[in-house]
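Hi P.,

Sorry for the delay on this. The queue was packed all week, but I finally got your sequence through. Input first:
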Amino acid sequence: MEENTAAIASLISKAIINLGQGITGKLSEIRGEMVANFQEISNLRQEIDNFRNNLNALDKDIENFRHEFTRLQDNVKNSIQLSSQQITSQFSSQINNLQSQISQLASRPVASSSGGGGVSTDDYNNLVKKNNKRSEIVSNFVRKMNNCLSSSSSGQQVSKIVQEFIDEWNASL
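Then the structure:
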């Protein structure tokens, strides 16, 4: 019986040693997995930080683009307004010149049927109509440009208005 007890004790002892070795092996395996997981977590954190940095840089680039676009838009708007003012001034000057010419013609005596050398009534009336038409064209152009500029319309819309004006003006010549 003592032999059996010693054999059982030996078996239990070997089982405990084997169990301890198994537990130690599993613990080593778990530790290895934990180290790998921690390394993966660290890598993911680094990737997240890189992503955040890239996102912040992209946000900054977008903000710079917005600022530059707004600045460019303001510059274009100011240039268009200045051009509109210059065009309006030039055409006002031309209209004043036409009005002056009409006034000069109006001060001449009207030609008689005998050909006395004055300005005919038809010529005078045609000049007045032409002047009125040009005044209307310029007024419409200025109104359209002011509406366009106040509504921050596109450059395409401005170009269309300018082209329409040029076409109307040339048609009135």
